[in-house]
Design brief:
alpha+beta; DNA-binding; globular; 6 strands
Length: 164
DNA sequence: GCCAACGTTGGC
DNA sequence: GCCAACGTTGGC
């Protein structure tokens, strides 16, 4: 039985890693590193599949918004920054024989027809139960339903982009 | 810059 | 295993 395509939302602070920076990478591909939350880690390691779509969300900016769509192009593998003492994401307690943190590779597919702000997401009835708009949500990686993904594409006037 | 929410740590 | 203290996230 073929696995259904999955959908995710990944948060990034634009000062650290923006949609434009993602697009500027060779072929728009780069590692989604630095995730240091166990729930998010479990999803990256165990659930993210090649071909899944990722909504690229800008947090800690005004207004917070979804900027574009990526595709998972490599499934979970250990995040090398956890073993690099020079990295801001270094984790001295992670054992290389049993890595604690994982990443996936993502490829930018398309910018949204127009960005969709958090206020607009909150105002859309079809998105009322989306994790992102629940109070206290702090996860930087979270699953999105197919219906939520479709609603966001519709809100932003965006066609579901093909793989590159 | 403030602060609510919430995950993690560590003493007991 | 409880839970207070602490650190971080992220909207505002």
């Amino acid at each position: 039985v073929a696995e259904k395509r999955g959908y995710w939302l990944f948060k990034s602070e634009p000062d650290v890693h923006s949609w434009d920076m993602q697009c500027a990478l060779p072929r728009g591909i780069g590692p989604w590193d630095g995730v240091r939350n166990y729930q998010a880690r479990n999803w990256l390691r165990d659930e993210c599949r090649v071909g899944d779509r990722v909504l690229f969300y800008h947090s800690n900016c005004a207004p917070p918004h979804i900027a574009g769509i990526c595709e998972v192009v490599e499934s979970g593998r250990p995040d090398p920054t956890q073993f690099d003492p020079a990295s801001a994401y270094y984790d001295a307690r992670s054992d290389p024989m049993r890595p604690r943190w994982y990443l996936v590779e993502v490829q930018a597919l398309a910018a949204l027809g127009r960005i969709v702000s958090l206020d607009e997401l909150r105002a859309e009835p079809a998105l009322a139960s989306m994790r992102l708009v629940q109070r206290g949500n702090r996860l930087s990686v979270m699953p999105v339903t197919e219906a939520e993904y479709a609603a966001i594409l519709a809100l932003s006037g965006t066609e579901d982009p093909p793989s590159r």
